[in-house]
Amino acid sequence: MDVESPSNMALPDAFIDFLNKNQLDPSIYTTSDPTPRYVRLKPGCEGEIEEIETQVECKLEKVDWLPGFYSLSPHVQIANSKAYQQGKIYGIDAASGAAVSALDISLGDHVLDLCAAPGAKLCMILDLLGSSGSVTGIDVARHRLAACRTMLLKYSLGDLCRLFVADGTTFSLLPIRVFSDSNSGEYPSDEKVNVYKEWTSRRPWKDRKRAAKERVSVASQLASPTQDPELIYYGKNSGVVGLTRSEIYQICHGSDVLRCGYDKVLVDAECTHDGSIKHIQKFEYWGWKTLQRRVLNAERTDDLTVLQLQLLTNGFRLLKVGGSLVYSTCSLTVAQNEDVVEQFLGQNTSAELLQIDAAKNWPCRSGQIPKTLRFDPMTSRTSGLFVAKFTKLAT
Ligand SMILES: C[S@@+](CC[C@H](N)C(=O)[O-])C[C@H]1O[C@@H](n2cnc3c(N)ncnc32)[C@H](O)[C@@H]1O
Q: Is residue 73 one of the residues assigned to a domain?
């Protein structure tokens, strides 16, 4: 089998079966024009494009419908280039960029990214946020979120960010502003010693020993719904420094959230990844048999749709009135997208689907529910992605 590019890859029978069962047209994956690779340029590096092109040994084509994005040949490896190593470019598919763009991030926003790892969208959110506001990144998988932390440090983007290993279906912490507004900096002397100091990767011996013990099994790297969120990183302007644990770990209750919830929430939910042919292609190496078990299994898909609805519901619970939430998946099945949206709207009368204004210039199709969007390799020359945007109405 030819694995050189998704466009000429023969799809395995099990995957074609899955597509047929989900009424998805296999031809969207096998376009004659291969889907390019995309990078986002770090703001401020626009004048260095020619130098970056020399370093990656390839021409970067500006994506005219998405600011800051460039496409390049899918065969080019960027990881060894100086531009990549210096954090001037990072790989992120243009459809993923569109999902973040749909959030309409503005300076000062407090943003929640409920399924943050490995972190390409989180990086873009931080890029767009600039110098004020905050980003709270959550992921259930400790090892994946640790990789996300490495990426933030590499790109020097973590200043306004805090990362928690937590289950996104039950995560309940408010954005930091609630406390920083009222924080006078005066603590009883016994609390003063327990305030968070500037974050350092050099952790006390006791912490390292505990972490090493936890790393013994991958299962123990997954947060459970009942476990306290574990703060594994915070930037120096993320609002954490100088606060006590009890201030950071305050659970939000219904009435707090309406007023003091997050301005923007991204729920980029776990899914079967069937929209990403690059992901499916990896099974050529992992073994097509595992594709059936790890991606296509019907029982697993049913579990996923329950998880997706729970993540969307909890993300929405943490959104303030008038805020925006984007739900996205890199699956193209109706079950994981429109069906989840429909169930969610049926259960949440204060949720309203929003038109994504910028989308009028995007090369995508409407989903089966008006105002929702679908990107696919054939229509968009991107990876497959479903995007829906909601706001919370006052009730
Ligand atoms: C599609 S990936 C997110 C990609 C990420 N937004 C990015 O741009 O790099 C889905 C993520 O959801 C995480 N996840 C799965 N179940 C979760 C849960 N219950 N709570 C929080 N995160 C979860 C997975 O560990 C995975 O990292």
A: no
Residue to mutate, 112, 115, 151, ligand 1, most ligand atoms under 8 Å from C-beta: 115
Q: Which residue has the tokens 């519901």?
A: 313
Looking at the structure of the chain, the number of domains it has is 1
Give residue ranges with CB within 6 A of ligand 1.
Answer: 96, 115-121, 138-141, 144, 167-169, 268, 270
- Specify the pTM: 0.91
**52 falls within a domain:** no
Taking the centre of ligand 1 as the mean of its atom positions, its distance from the CA of residue 119, in whole angstroms, is: 9
Once rounded to an integer, what is the mean pLDDT over residues 28-57? 89
State the closest ligand 1 atom to the C-alpha of 145, by its place in the atom list counted from 1. Answer: 27
Q: How far apart are CA 339 and CA 197, in angstroms?
A: 45
Say how far apart CA 368 and CA 357 lie, in whole Å: 18
Least confident of 92-96, 121-125, 245-249, 386-390: 245-249
- What residue numbers bound the domain in which 294 lies? 12-32+94-392
- Express each pLDDT in 292-310 by its tens digit: 777 777 777 889 999 999 9
Q: Write down the pLDDT at residue 180.
A: 46
Among 40-44, 200-204, 275-279, which range has the highest average pLDDT? 40-44
Atom of ligand 1 nearest to the CA of 138: 21
Q: Is 75 domain-assigned?
A: no
Atom 4 in ligand 1: residue holding the nearest Cα: 117
SS3 assignment, position 243: coil
Residue 256 in contact with residue 313, Cβ under 8 Å? Answer: no
Please tell me the distance between residue 81's alpha carbon and the centre of ligand 1 in angstroms.
28
- For residue 153, the domain's CATH number is 3.40.50.150
pLDDT-derived band at 210, boundaries 50, 70, 90? low
- Residues 252, 254, 258, 263, CA torsion sign: positive
Residue 221 belongs to some domain of the structure = yes
d(CA 344, CA 367): 16
| Pocket residue to mutate for ligand 1, from 270, 276, 310, 382, most atoms within 8 A of Cβ | 270
Which atom of ligand 1 has the smallest separation from the CA of 273? 1
